[in-house]
Amino acid sequence: MSFTAEVAEEQAEQPPAPSRRAAELAALHPQRAALELAWPGIIENLIAAGGQATVFVFVGHLGAIATAAVGASLQFLFLMFPVWRSLAIGTMAHVSRRMGEGRMRTAADVTRQSLLLGAIAGVAFGVGFVVFAAPLLRLLGATDDVVDVATPILALLGGGSVFQTVWFIAVSAIRAAGDSRTPMWLAILSVALTVPLAYLFVDVLRVGPIGAAYALTIDSATICALSLVLLWRGRADLSIRGGPWGLDMSLIRSIFSISLPSAAESALFSIGILALSGFAFRLGTATSAAHQIVNQVESFSFLPCIGFSGAASALVGQALGMGDPRRATRAGWAAVRMAFLWSTLAGVAFMVVPGFLLGIFTSDQHVVDAGIGALAVVGIGQPAQALIFTLGGALRGAGDTRFPLVATAVNWFVIRLPLAYTLAFPLGLGLTGVWAGIAADYFVRAGLLAWRFNSGAWQKVRV
Prior knowledge:
Largest sheet: none
Oligomer: single chain
Structural class: mainly alpha
Helix content: over 70%
Strand content: under 5%
Shape: globular
Order of helices and strands: HHHHHHHHHHHHHHHHHH
Radius of gyration: 21 Å
């Protein structure tokens, strides 16, 4: 049965009514509903950041080359980010809208198709990482000693990226249905598995920095399998059990109408991230290691914002599915206010004690000194990060993925990269200049997204 025919049959069987979870959230004040969905996401992302940071601490004590090698390998996994993020956004927009409309069967169909597409893409990219690991690292500008260490790490992490892709899509579907606690518990279990494994491989068995890759790959395979089991059994009225698993081109086209602009946006983001890493490598191995650690520290600010972003996506999509655009708008701004408070506090910490925060991740004083100015200056931009994540999530939850694509293209290639390069090299500010360009970009992009959300044009997007 085609996607269109199944939708018609589902609508004919019963009058549309929101899923039970969507109805529960709709009965709450938008700020309470946003917090209800966001707090498990905040804990999830903080715990995930803490787990990855702990792995970096294990590796950081092996020296600057080991830190740069693992950091560069993880940076290259951003090449998978367009796949994860675009399919997750397409899934969230469709699933949240369908759950708000009461079309749970169609939501399950979307989820199955997204999981299949993610698995196919994950395998294809994984083969590419295994075959081209060393050339990719050299393209980034890594030195020969870093390439020698990082090549097997990137091959292993990239080859296992299919598990992370499917896992990411699965928890996005669960979150879109209104259940943000299950992804939180999966994240807690993930860290409980990753940290002991990393300690075992790196500090006990002393296999070197590749031990971090062993730990992360075993963890992602385990959590991927568990997330699929949970979706099969059903979460928040969403279950992938019992429906068709063949590729449905009409449904894939519907998903791609939302996902492809997001994929292009994410691809530009990934290219930009790699370009910034290339700038850092040009400044030396210690500076490159500092750049990776600044990224890790900053994640403690923006990862909670991802929780508010996910809440905004789900609530906006569900409200539009119920035909209530006013509630969708209120939910988006409620998420912004809470994320803004968190990011502002984090930014103050970055500016006040940057050396202390960097020192948690490495005992190499040269690396700490290289990163102090960068972390302090990016602290200024953290309030703008809150708007970028939450309003971006709200727009994508409505299915409006084209405007964020345009904003990303303009900001990365007109503002962030040119400014970061100019400040770092011609003006001689080094890594601090790179991150000053990043902070400037935050404010411009936040202004563009706020203008778009305030215009209300996103309420007219068809999903």
